[in-house]
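pinning this so it doesn't scroll away 📌
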Amino acid sequence: PRPQRPCDAAGQPLAMGALGGAALPPLLLALALLAPLVAGGICPLRCVCASNILSCSQAVLSAVPAPLPRFTAVLDLSHNNVTRLRADWAPGRLAHLHALLLSHNGLSFVSTEAFAHVPHLRHLDLSSNRLRALEENLFSDLAELEVLLLYNNEIAAVDRTAFDNLGRLRKLYLGQNRIARFPLELLRDGSRLPQLALLDLSANRLRSLPVGELQALPAWLRDRLYLHGNPLACDCPLFQLVARGRRRRLSAVMDFQEELRCLLPAASAPVGILALAGRQPLNCSEAREAVLEAHLGDTVTLGCDTRLRGVRSRHWVTPGGERVLEEGGNGSAALLANGSLQLRALRPEDAGTYACWVAGPLLNETLYVELLVHNFTLHGPHDTLNTAYTTLVGCILSVVLVLIYLYLTPCRCCCCRGTEKPPAPRDDSINSSVLSATPNHAATAATVAAGGPHGEPCRSRSASATGPGGQNGRFKVGGTPQPPPRHGLKAQRKVSDPDSVSSVFSDTPIVV
């Protein structure tokens, strides 16, 4: 168009003298008028510019076009041949850029300084490329990034610092890659990605999962944790993880039930994880949902594991129908700041099913927690002497007492001191104790003939200690009187009482 003469504030053309006394050449005047457009950047060739959107999709580009307009907020470079993203792809600072699309480019290299000039990027699409690894601190310059798409690449290695400084990241898509180890550092403690609400790890090469740590994750994160399409090994903890998600109607389970499959040992084809219930050889069973066991006097905390984010309000209802609304609560029940219910000094009447009512921005949810309160004298770790232990201790004590009796009693034959006393008359052999040890008659005669030490005869301990009343001075009634003892070995053998009762502990053979 033909250049117009400059005008004053009233809209009247200025005189040539007002411009310095001489008229500007037409070329210089045209450049002066186009200077703001050049400073802001013009739309590159093969691209379409609409306001602050720059679309260069399917433009057969092998590099990022330059220069880029500084006002660009959305840059679409998808479906091109940009195989390397260097640090100088954006020589100037693009303060307004918040979305960068680089999918379907065959991209195999991304510099760790590639995003230094786009600090306000919130959406980054690197999907459907040939990336093989996520290097150290690759995305650390994107502190405001919210959505990162890395699916359909060849990623097999993820550096533990690749996602550092992404405090606002909400959605991370890593599906259809070659990841063989679960990147638990992305979820542990919630410190690295505190705002993460969706993690897609589907169609990778995961063979096992840290089920215990995944069960401890909040339900709002498990609701968008996609693990289908992996060659997982079948086991009962995996089944219980998925079955719990189905009971809670988590989206990651409900939307992909058919694709949640695993491999049984020596099986040729994968089977559905939810089909493992009662199936051989595992014969898995579902674990009960939210069941807590405690004992009288304990303090317990009931968690409200809701899958809703942005909760507006919540309250608990006790088994007795009492509502716990305010933080701090009254009596033994107290509502904590994180929505959990704390019960102190448990009583038998505290047992039952508690309900947590949660009101979210769009939906409401109710969770139930069953509390079992055991008497410490009957159940649990408070027991010190239950029936089994008492029986065992009793058996051991009995055996010890029997061994003491058998092996620690004094010897039956000792040397008698003092003058020889005549043997007590044996008027009733049945009066002797059933536990007495009667010496061998022949051996006794030989000992008497030979004499013990100091020239004194040796008598049995039982004979010297037993008087007319029997062993230990106790009388046995009903005995048969015997004639006085006769001398000689043959006579001694005839003294045996045929009515005598021998003890099971006696070492004397029965003499007929």
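📌 and the second one:
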Amino acid sequence: SSSSRDESLRDKRARILSRGLPKQKPIEGVKQVVVLASGKGGVGKSTTAVNIALALAANDSTKEVGLLDADIYGPSIPKMMNLRGNPELTPKNLMRPLKNYGIACMSMGFLVEETAPVVWRGLMVMSAVEKLLRQVDWGQLDYLVIDMPPGTGDVQLSVSQNIPIAGAVIISTPQDVALLDARKGAEMFRKVHVPVLGLVQNMSVFRCPKCKHETHIFGADGVRDLAKTLGLDILGDIPLHVNIRETCDSGQPVVISQPQSDA
């Protein structure tokens, strides 16, 4: 019958397509991988990734946490984690992550000069991502938090298809143009069968330090509405606060430097 022919064609197509996909292989020593992603740049994804990694470690001192900066063109983890220098090599020729606040960190920023632009085409970027994933001695980690570059391009696909990921967290501001891209990010992870753990609404409200008046600079509930549409959870609602920005810029993220503060 035509329906059984259609089914066998679909099966055949699925088999052909699956041949082209790389086999997922876990990162040695890493139990769970969580990726932090955003469709758009500038929504506070790296700041959130750093504070989530520190919070995971602070919540349970028995857990070992690592942080991988997969943003090849604009690595910001070295500055936010107050780390400088080049990784040492192990006898097996693997890079040793740099460590601060108990978090093992690896970033392209450790391998190039701070002010040097990375002017590379796709293949070189993919090679760098492969090295950051496979040629790092993470030791034994309970959680590896990966700070993805913005967008839905080669790096996101390569990471998603090469390693098993426990889940993705999407960061967005409530602004309409950011939400459009956040939705694309969530849909991309669904397409490559990575569970989306939920969304974080960042820079949601600004409270004037003098008069305490609250202003929704980027809109009020955009991420909440998007989460409802996609059937996803809201994992956090973070205000636009000068302390969050200042502490990350100074390499002392708010979770570690002001753990009792509202922020």
